[in-house]
Write a structure and sequence with these properties.
The complex is a heterodimer of chains A (about 210) and B (about 230). Chain A has about 210 residues and is an alpha/beta fold. Helix content of chain A is about 15%, strand content about 25%. The chains are: A alpha/beta (about 210), B alpha/beta (about 230). At the A-B interface, helix 3 and helix 4 of A face helix 5 and helix 6 of B. Chain A: It holds the Pfam family CoA_trans.
């Protein structure tokens, strides 16, 4: 037993706080928007130049001038504001965005993050990921605990080129929640049906 | 001085030369100067370097200039969704300089604002930082990034008046203002040219001082990832 994608997103939504401006990455992090607690005031940033991102449009109401950072058509809200890319990354670099929730290929016990490049494979680019992890207040990674081959993605040291050094605060995987602390990772909680021993056994990184 | 031109080809007259650096607005296919890109293809200018967040898709945006082998180098943050780009890049025919997205936007803004370089935390400890000056401020390490000054900026806006004041629409603003600012010459293509005074001075997104030539035309405005919800 462990969490599925939606359960991971629901757990990540518990990281949100009232009044926060938040950036959600592509993949499971996008699903977090479905689990924002009722009555909580959270504003989603899309780094291509928008605060206050709404849901996908209904069929026929797509607008070519209104997309998210994944290039998908979206909608606006009554609170929405638009701005240019340098302003957008100014608020990211300037620490105005409280939290980013991102996917990852690897995370290390010192908070190093790799999520943009696999040497020898097709390189598409880092987009805004390096700016986000360097600038926002808190970085939460949501990913599967192990690769498709069953290898731990929570490592002593990243093997892939880094997106950022010492940038991750918390890791949410299908097996549980871990915090980056002095000397390694600390178990915050285990996923449903997962024991602490199982979580330790599945993790290459040092658990303190 | 008259800024309005009759067509993209007319607006580009006397501006293009082989080997030049062009800054282009747009994010994905949203807010790209599609008419000017078409006209640059028709002009056949070669060995171009583009500072542009993305490289379009195979048959739209900068992608059409890759098909005709007019591009020598891209300065971009993300170049997925383009097979011809990857073929040329992996074949060694095309240079690529990856910039983090915010660094690229700020390099353009800085270049246009007379700032030759700036320090940023973005990319410290990654391959992006290799070979760049590092400097500590208040206990944190930053790297030096250079401002970009382009020979030409090409941008897309929603509306312009005849003095070049621009208004953008929704997320189609994106890289257009910083790209416009960093060009020695900036050409803007717009959906509508409106009478002077009708935009309202408080509502201008980019003042006409940055815009030297304007054209009006019909835009395809292609959608890259049409995503809808079930109602």
């Amino acid at each position: 037993m462990a969490w599925d994608r939606n359960q991971m997103a629901a757990r990540a939504a518990q990281e949100l706080q009232d009044g926060w401006y938040v950036n959600l990455g592509i993949g499971i992090p996008t699903l977090v928007s479905n689990y924002i607690p009722e009555g909580m005031d959270v504003t989603l940033q899309s780094e291509n130049g928008m605060l206050g991102m709404g849901a996908f449009p209904i069929d026929g109401e797509e607008d070519a001038d209104l997309i998210n950072a994944g290039k998908q058509t979206i909608t606006e809200l009554d609170r929405t504001s638009y701005f240019d890319s340098s302003t957008s990354f100014g608020m990211i670099r300037g620490g105005k965005i409280a939290m980013a929730i991102l996917g990852a290929m690897e995370v290390a016990e010192n908070g190093d993050l790799a999520n943009w490049m696999i040497p020898g494979k097709l390189v598409k680019g880092m987009g805004g990921a390096m700016d986000l992890v360097a600038g926002v207040g808190r970085v939460v990674v949501v990913m599967d605990h192990a690769s498709k081959h069953g290898d731990s993605k929570v490592l002593k040291e990243c093997t892939l080129p880094l997106t950022g050094k010492n940038v991750v605060d918390r890791i949410i995987t299908n097996l549980g929640v871990l915090d980056v602390v002095e000397g390694g990772l600390k178990i915050v909680e285990c996923a449903d049906g997962v024991t602490e021993d199982e979580l330790r056994a599945a993790t290459e990184a040092t658990i303190v | 001085m008259k800024k309005i031109y009759g067509s993209a080809a007319e607006a580009l007259e006397g501006v293009l030369h082989d080997g030049m650096l062009i800054a282009a607005g747009g994010f994905g296919l949203c807010g790209i100067p599609e008419l000017l890109l078409n006209a640059i293809r028709d002009a056949g200018t070669k060995d171009l370097t583009f500072a542009s967040n993305n490289a379009g898709v195979d048959d739209f945006g900068i992608g059409i200039l890759l098909q005709t082998k007019q591009v020598k180098k891209m300065i971009s943050s993300y170049v997925g969704e383009n097979k011809e780009f990857m073929r040329q890049y992996l074949g060694g025919e095309l240079e690529l300089e990856f910039n983090p997205q915010g660094t690229l936007a700020e390099r353009m803004r800085a270049g246009g604002a007379g700032i030759p370089g700036f320090y940023t935390k973005t990319g410290v400890g990654t391959v992006i930082a290799e070979g760049k000056e590092h400097k500590d401020f208040d206990g944190e390490t930053y790297i030096l990034e250079r401002g970009i000054v382009a020979d030409l900026a090409i941008v897309k806006a929603w509306k312009a008046d005849d003095t070049g004041n621009l208004v953008f629409r929704k997320t189609a603003r994106n890289f257009n203002p910083p790209a416009a600012m960093c060009g020695k010459i900036c050409i803007a293509e717009v959906e509508e040219i409106v009478p002077r005074g009708s935009l309202g001075g408080d509502a201008i997104h980019l003042p006409g001082i940055y815009v030297h030539r304007i054209i009006q035309g019909d835009h395809e405005k292609r959608i890259e990832q049409r995503t809808v919800r079930t109602a």
